[in-house]
Amino acid sequence: GSCRHRCCPGRNNACWAPGARRARCYCDSYCQRTGDCCQDYRTTCRRAAVGCLVGPWGPWSGCSSPCGVGSRARSRQVTVPPRHGGEPCPDLKQRRGCLGEQPTCGTAK
């Protein structure tokens, strides 16, 4: 079978070609794990692989708790999604702990 007309990222059971002895061979990047790639998968699909690219981290949010333990978060965007079995995207969100210390925290009403 041949992948020359189709290469798919991830696991995609619809991305196949007729192979030897009526068996299907696959052209999705998951076929590398399952070992059922078409003969030309590496030369045809891996050559066209594009890895994920992400932008810079945004600013940290304010602390989720004005008084006491909370968390801050930040995120970034995908600028180029992965294609044809390219490297997947790294984490797009991060979270870290913080301690809210607004001036009114210690005042009892």
UniProtKB/TrEMBL annotation:
<dbReference type="InterPro" id="IPR000884">
    <property type="entry name" value="TSP1_rpt"/>
</dbReference>
<protein>
    <submittedName>
        <fullName>SBSPO protein</fullName>
    </submittedName>
</protein>
<dbReference type="InterPro" id="IPR044004">
    <property type="entry name" value="TSP1_spondin_dom"/>
</dbReference>
<dbReference type="InterPro" id="IPR036383">
    <property type="entry name" value="TSP1_rpt_sf"/>
</dbReference>
<dbReference type="InterPro" id="IPR039942">
    <property type="entry name" value="SBSPO"/>
</dbReference>
<keyword id="KW-0325">Glycoprotein</keyword>
<keyword id="KW-1015">Disulfide bond</keyword>
<dbReference type="Pfam" id="PF01033">
    <property type="entry name" value="Somatomedin_B"/>
</dbReference>
<keyword id="KW-0732">Signal</keyword>
<feature type="domain" description="SMB">
    <location>
        <begin position="1"/>
        <end position="49"/>
    </location>
</feature>
<dbReference type="InterPro" id="IPR001212">
    <property type="entry name" value="Somatomedin_B_dom"/>
</dbReference>
<dbReference type="Pfam" id="PF19028">
    <property type="entry name" value="TSP1_spondin"/>
</dbReference>
